[in-house]
Amino acid sequence: MNAGADNPAAPLEPPGCDVLVIGCGNLLRGDDGVGPVLVRHLWERGVPEGAKLVDGGTAGMDVAFQMRGARQVVIVDAAATGSAPGTTFRVPGDELAELPPLQGLHTHSFRWDHAIAFARWALGEDCPTDITVFLIEVAGVEMGADLSEPVTAAMEQVIALIERDYLAPLRPEVPREVTVEFTADGYLRLDAATAAARFPSDAVAAVLRDGALWLIPLRGPRSGGLLLKQRTPAGDRSVLVSELLRETPLRGVQRACWDDEQSAMRIEVPAREERDT
Fold first, then answer.
1. Residue pLDDT, tens place only, 100-121
2. What domain range is 91 assigned to?
3. Last residue of a domain, which of 170, 188, 209?
4. 240 and 130: one domain?
5. Kind of pairing, strands 177-182 and 252-259?
6. How many C-beta atoms surround the C-beta of residue 88 within 10 A?
7. Do 153 and 46 have their domain in common?
8. Is 0.90 topped by the overall pTM?
9. With contact defined as beta carbons under 8 Å apart, do 71 and 18 qualify?
C-alpha cells in the first residue's frame, strides 16, 4: 500500500544534519584521495551527534543530493593549480554559483564545483547556504600511491580546522571536574557526556604517573590503547583498567579533572593507607 496515497501532496522532510563533511577524490590515485582519507580520519576521531561524514568519491551528482537539508556543508578535495604541494585554499561556496555548460556534461565530468551549483538549482530551499570548500594542492596522483608528506601535513591542518570550527560546537559541554566510578570487576565508568566530549574516538591510553591515573584520548582503535565500550543505551562508557591498577586497586566513585595542558583526564589515586582507612 502506498503510504502517500491518501495525501499525495504530503511533503517529504529533508534528512538534514547540522554539519555535513564530504571528502571528494579518488583513493587509488595518490594525493587525489585526500578528501576520502580525511573523512576516514575524522570518523576515527569520533563523530558528534548532528554531524554526518560522507565519502563523496568521484560522484559529483551524489554530492549534490547528499547536501539536501544540511545546515553547514564542508567539502574537501585535491587541487592542481601549480602551487606548492600542500598549499591549502579555503573557498566560500557562494563563489561557485553558476551551473557549468550542460552541453557535453556527464557523470564522469561532474565535479564537486558543479555539484554545488547543481544543488542550488535542484534542491531549492533545501540547499544549504553555508558551504565551505577546502582544496589541498597535490604533489602527485600516481595510481596506487600513498598520500605525500606535504599533503598529509596539510590534511592534518584541515582536520584541526574542521574540528575547531564545525565539529567541536556539536560535542556536549562538560565541566573540567567530573566523577568517575571504579567497579568491582575492574572497569572504569564514564558518563555519556564526558565520554563523548573528551574521548570521542572511544580509544584511550591509560597511564599511572605522579600519583594519578591518566586517561589520554587516542585518534581511534588503530592507534592501539584501550577501548571504551558502550555500557548503557544512554551512551555511558566503560574501560577495563584492572591490569593497570593491580597494585593499587580502586573502588567506587572518584573525582577526576580534565588537564588542558596534558589534553588528558587526571584521576587521583589515593595512597594505600588512605584507601584502607
1. 444 444 444 445 566 666 666 6
2. 17-170
3. 170
4. no
5. antiparallel
6. 18
7. yes
8. no
9. yes
